[in-house]
Automatic annotation (TrEMBL):
Monomer. This is Translation initiation factor IF-3. Residues 171-215 are annotated as: Disordered. Residues 1-70 form the Translation initiation factor 3 N-terminal domain. IF-3 binds to the 30S ribosomal subunit and shifts the equilibrium between 70S ribosomes and their 50S and 30S subunits in favor of the free subunits, thus enhancing the availability of 30S subunits on which protein synthesis initiation begins. InterPro entries: T_IF-3_C_sf, T_IF-3_N_sf, Translation_initiation_fac_3, Translation_initiation_fac_3_C, Translation_initiation_fac_3_N.
Length: 215
């Protein structure tokens, strides 16, 4: 809920983060007006509350840019699935391994499933050896997140990309997105005296603002 700064004294922080000290609210408002900045309450629960001198419009603009950049860089975890037979043909194995490699390079996890049929169910070691072989051949890209486990007629293993591989995939995705996306137009910073009393800042440095106009 927006409200005006009600304390008689505030702990004032300068625009560069320097500590000014505890000053009367009227003095803080005057200092804000003198340097053409807004007085923003950033820690209302402190005693006395902490206020900072800043350009509130610029702060909101930069916060919006950072939030958009964070959303662009965020990548949801995707699990791909690759199914193999315990007696898979060598050529088919190489093809499917290529898909696993591609998934890991893209930063995705891979659920590898060995499907047993008929009498193959009595030879689980065939599937286990195949999964271990795949593990050894993709070790530079990923690791075993979930060890091979029998699940009914299937044997399942989950592979995950190394952090460096995933970070590279995220960076590549962000780079492609930056090339396609144009920054959205943002509203101009408020002029001195136009900041409504009690307006609340966003994204981490939330607080109420006091109108410095006419002080």
């Amino acid at each position: 809920m927006n409200e005006q700064i009600r304390a008689r004294e505030v702990r004032l922080v300068g625009p560069e983060g320097e500590q000014v000290g505890i000053v009367p609210l009227e003095r803080a408002l005057q200092l804000a007006a003198d340097v053409d900045l807004d007085l923003v309450e950033v820690a209302p629960m402190a005693r006395p509350p902490v206020c900072k001198l800043m350009d509130f419009g610029k702060f909101k603009y930069e916060s919006a840019l950072k939030a958009r950049e964070a959303r662009r860089n965020q990548q949801q975890t995707v699990i791909k699935e690759m199914k193999l037979r315990p007696k898979i043909d060598p050529h088919d194995y190489e093809t499917k391994k290529g898909h696993v490699v591609r998934f890991l390079k893209a930063g995705d996890k891979v659920k590898v499933t060995i499907m047993f049929r008929g009498r193959e169910q009595s030879r689980p070691e065939l599937g286990y050896r195949l999964l271990r072989r795949l593990e050894s051949e993709i070790t530079e890209l990923g690791y075993v997140e979930a060890a091979p486990k029998q699940d009914g007629r299937n044997m399942i293993m989950v592979l995950a990309p190394h952090r460096a591989v995933k970070a590279s995939a995220v960076a590549a995705t962000a780079s492609r997105g930056a090339g396609r996306e144009r920054p959205a137009e943002e509203s101009a910073a408020p002029a001195v005296g136009e900041t409504p009393a009690g307006e609340t800042a966003a994204a981490g440095e939330t607080g109420t603002t006091a109108d410095t106009g006419g002080q």
